[in-house]
Design brief:
Order of helices and strands: HHEEHEHHHEHEHHEHEHEHHHHHHHHHHH
Largest sheet: 5 strands, parallel
Number of helices: 22
Strand order of the largest sheet: 5-6-7-4-8
Helix content: 55-70%
Bound molecules: adenosine-5'-diphosphate, magnesium ion
Length: about 450
């Protein structure tokens, strides 16, 4: 087993445990430089990263390393020359298949499409069949049926895969159609820089040439007024020319009022479909298909185990598989059920270990595009009161925190305020599907954070 392979396996596991942003920031340019007498020397790009890894991640890194190689006694970090290219090439076990990673894949520069995402490798089950069928119909007659096509669902459930598959299929069917996939964050930054450079007109005309516009994760438009303007402009002018628009989001259009109100009439002529959670059979089918893709043989009992542990995120299903592949490569033998259980114990540990009050408040604030201090303020504005009550609700539900604690934690409120908030949200969740959905999404983010 080479040092590189060992580090790949470590990275594969770490990716499951920390957020994408943190992972990119802290582990992007790391590698093992040497191993000596049980010590592993990890090279990091700068002293800031060194300090951070030593203080925040050392325990986790050590645990993962030891899980793979019992002889390892400690980990040391040293500032070294970054070797970005090498690292990128040697991390085939990439768990994240989100937008960030696209740059490293064979992404077409014009369309931003990654050929890896197709309908052929998109497994269909009851949880996504409506979205898949509608998406497929769109590829046959872009702009003519289901326009706009809006897909929504939680993290890691296949929205990007489906959107990209639609794009790839349209190009296959209609060579002359101009397709463009764009993550909303990228759209936002294009708009901002076009404003800065006084080139908004240029940006407008660039988008006018597109036949099929695919905008991923549109929830990121929340709170960005100027970008919303540009989005509506682009949307309307393309729509009026019968150009196809495909949108994804982590929540239903109703839960993005700024979007929904302005586009309501448009949505009525289109199609809104959701992707929910895959059932057990589909999870196993997905695992089997990924095994085939990655050319690896894994026994049914191991696959069943993974499917029983990872229920609500297909990206994590793949992540679990990648860990087993790493193990198999390192040890030249497949992990049996017992080893699998120990390798994947982090997946199976109860998330409440890692959730704390701060994380809940931060996650809720982020979700509603607020600052943490707004949540703690005395403001009675509707946009703040609701998130604050949801934070109180989650503190109670997830942490079983006491009401006096909850009140204090949210800016020194009385415990009766906390009780009121908890009961109010509880009642509303039972009545309103969209609130239930919102809270479910926040919880998902909490688990991933
Ligand atoms: P989202 O955009 O909803 O967060 P992604 O589309 O990035 O999720 O999917 C996460 C990972 O799971 C990707 O690697 C994707 O290929 C895989 N995946 C999702 N849904 C399916 C499916 N139905 N069949 C096969 N793989 C899937
Ligand atoms: Mg996505």
């Amino acid at each position: 087993m080479t040092d590189e392979e060992l580090w790949q396996a470590v990275l594969a596991q770490l990716q499951l445990q920390i957020s994408k942003a943190s992972f990119q920031t802290w582990f992007g340019d790391t590698r093992i430089v040497s191993k000596k007498e049980g010590s592993v020397f990890v090279s990091v790009p700068n002293s800031f990263a060194k300090e951070w890894l030593e203080q925040k991640y050392n325990k986790t890194i050590f645990k993962v390393l030891r899980g793979l190689d019992i002889k390892i006694k400690d980990v040391k970090y040293e500032v070294g020359k970054p070797k970005t290219e090498i690292i990128k090439k040697t991390v085939p076990f990439s768990i994240e298949t989100g937008q960030l990673e696209f740059q490293e894949f064979k992404v077409d520069k014009d369309t931003n499409l990654n050929p890896r995402y197709t309908f052929d490798n998109f497994i269909v089950g009851p949880f996504n069949e409506l979205s898949q069928a509608a998406g497929w119909a769109v590829t046959k007659k872009p702009g003519k049926v289901y326009n706009p096509f809006f897909v929504y669902g939680g993290v890691g459930l296949g929205k990007t895969h489906l959107l990209q598959a639609i794009g790839n299929e349209v190009i296959k069917n209609f060579k002359d159609k101009k397709v463009k996939y764009i993550p909303t964050e990228k759209f936002v930054s294009e708009v901002i820089s076009s404003i800065r450079n006084r080139e908004t007109q240029k940006l407008k005309s660039k988008y006018q040439k597109i036949d099929v516009l695919i905008i991923d994760d549109v929830q990121f438009l929340t709170g960005k007024e100027k970008t919303q303007e540009e989005f509506f402009y682009t949307f309307n002018s393309l729509y009026e020319k019968d150009k196809q628009i495909i949108i994804s989001s982590d929540r239903s259009p109703k839960a993005i009022p700024a979007l929904a109100e302005r586009l309501r009439s448009r949505f009525e002529g289109g199609m809104i479909a959701d992707i929910s959670f895959p059932d057990t059979e589909t999870r196993i089918a997905i695992l089997k298909s990924k095994c085939q893709e990655k050319e690896i043989d894994i026994s049914d009992d191991v696959l069943n185990f993974i499917a029983s542990k990872v229920q609500r995120n297909i990206r994590e299903l793949e992540g679990a598989l990648n860990i087993l592949i790493a193990y198999q490569k390192l040890n030249n033998s497949a992990a049996d059920l017992k080893i699998t259980k120990s390798l994947l114990r982090n997946l199976t540990s109860s998330p409440s270990h890692t959730i704390n009050a701060k994380k809940i408040i931060q996650t809720v604030a982020e979700f509603y595009d607020l600052k943490e201090k707004d949540m703690l303020s005395k403001s009675r504005k509707k946009e703040i009161v609701k998130p604050r009550q949801i934070a109180m609700f989650l503190l109670r539900q997830e942490l079983k925190a006491s009401f006096p604690f909850i009140g204090r934690r949210l800016g020194g409120k009385d415990h009766t305020t906390a009780i009121y908030a908890y009961e109010k949200i509880m009642k509303e969740v039972n009545k309103s599907e969209s609130l239930d959905e919102e809270i479910e999404l926040i919880k998902q983010r909490l688990m991933c954070a």
